[in-house]
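Backbone-to-sequence.
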């Protein structure tokens, strides 16, 4: 198959695809870009010709995929024949006079407005059933008869990043490595009580906070501004009392830090429907680091039984969080149970497993569009 992959993602700027495999790479890239690159590489690995149109640092042929500037997309998509057009949250290519036989629009975010372009889209791709339901509910233009177009394919994790464990785990280290607007203020608010219960506790925060602060400060009517103000004040209050802001790091460094910690605490409390999957949770499981989180969004569907989930709201229930953290940091048997269960569960989300199923589905969907039958 010849496959074109386009994207609406641009927040983290230009990067080279080797970023995902370079332990010394600088900066960070979000889950949407990661899924786009990893699924593209999986399709190329299985013998297909794949072009990815994104604002890469430079045009490059990498691991079987041609990564080209986004500006190349319109001309090539309309002049070359592609069997499949996969457009990650980017509806513009769907409206072009493209030549693809099969069109797929994957989503990572939680809102959309498809409108009349629905007639030109063969399939929509979500990362959980909660995600499907949320996207449909967000779009007043969505046609009920198009519900059958949806397919669920989860995100994945590169288990190679978790193959080489650090020399030691810090027995009282807690890590937070998700977007701060989703509940970091809760964790910082209860930090004084956590330190009383576990005096040796330390918290490492991995995120580019300053960039987030600036975004929250400049967006008019931002719903996250109060949370940004709270995080800013609480970080200043607790730095020097076991809290360290580590900034943005690449995925390999983050994996090492996740494996060096003893708990991943994620009091997920989005201001709007947000967590259709939960890459941070999956990374914690792959690291063998027990995860304490909430029952927000898709988490009960995906992570019940392999994480310690406490019900929302977090407010006025901080005591239960402190008790759960204290218990897992001091009870070795319980800690080991969650660690082993998480590692085992994460294996079914390796990119090789996800990619194998994805390629099979693409081939079957293309054959069905052409009126053919796929034989194993």
């Amino acid at each position: 198959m010849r496959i074109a992959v386009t994207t609406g993602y641009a927040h983290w700027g230009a990067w080279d695809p080797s970023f995902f495999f370079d332990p010394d790479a600088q900066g960070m890239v979000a889950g949407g870009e990661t899924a786009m690159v990893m699924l593209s590489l999986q399709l190329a690995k299985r013998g297909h010709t794949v072009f990815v149109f994104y604002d890469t640092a430079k045009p490059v042929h990498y691991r079987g995929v041609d990564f080209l500037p986004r500006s190349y997309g319109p001309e090539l998509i309309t002049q070359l024949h592609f069997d499949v057009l996969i457009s990650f949250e980017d509806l513009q290519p769907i409206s072009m006079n493209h030549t693809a036989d099969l069109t797929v629009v994957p989503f990572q975010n939680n809102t959309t407005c498809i409108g009349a372009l629905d007639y030109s889209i063969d399939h929509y791709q979500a990362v959980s059933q909660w995600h499907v339901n949320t996207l449909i509910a967000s779009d007043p233009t969505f046609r009920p008869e198009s519900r059958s177009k949806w397919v669920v394919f989860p995100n994945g994790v590169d288990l190679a990043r978790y193959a080489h464990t650090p020399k030691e785990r810090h027995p009282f280290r807690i890590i937070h490595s998700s977007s701060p607007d989703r509940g970091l203020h809760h964790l910082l608010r209860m930090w004084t009580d956590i330190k009383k219960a576990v005096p040796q506790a330390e918290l490492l925060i991995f995120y580019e906070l300053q960039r987030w602060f600036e975004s929250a400060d400049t967006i008019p009517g931002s719903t996250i501004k109060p949370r940004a103000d709270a995080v800013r004040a609480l970080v200043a209050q607790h730095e020097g009392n076991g809290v360290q802001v580590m900034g943005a790091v690449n995925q390999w460094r983050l994996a090492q830090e996740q494996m060096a910690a003893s708990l991943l605490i994620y009091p997920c409390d989005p201001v709007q429907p947000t967590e259709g999957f939960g890459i941070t949770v999956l990374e914690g499981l792959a690291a063998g680091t027990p995860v304490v989180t909430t029952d927000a969004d898709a988490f009960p569907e995906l992570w019940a039984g392999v994480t310690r989930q406490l019900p929302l709201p977090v407010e006025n229930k901080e005591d239960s969080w402190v008790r759960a953290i204290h218990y897992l940091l001091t009870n070795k048997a319980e800690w080991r149970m969650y660690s082993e269960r998480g590692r085992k569960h994460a294996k079914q989300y390796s990119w090789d497993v996800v990619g194998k199923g994805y390629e099979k589905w693409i081939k079957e969907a293309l054959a069905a569009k052409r009126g053919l039958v796929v034989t194993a």
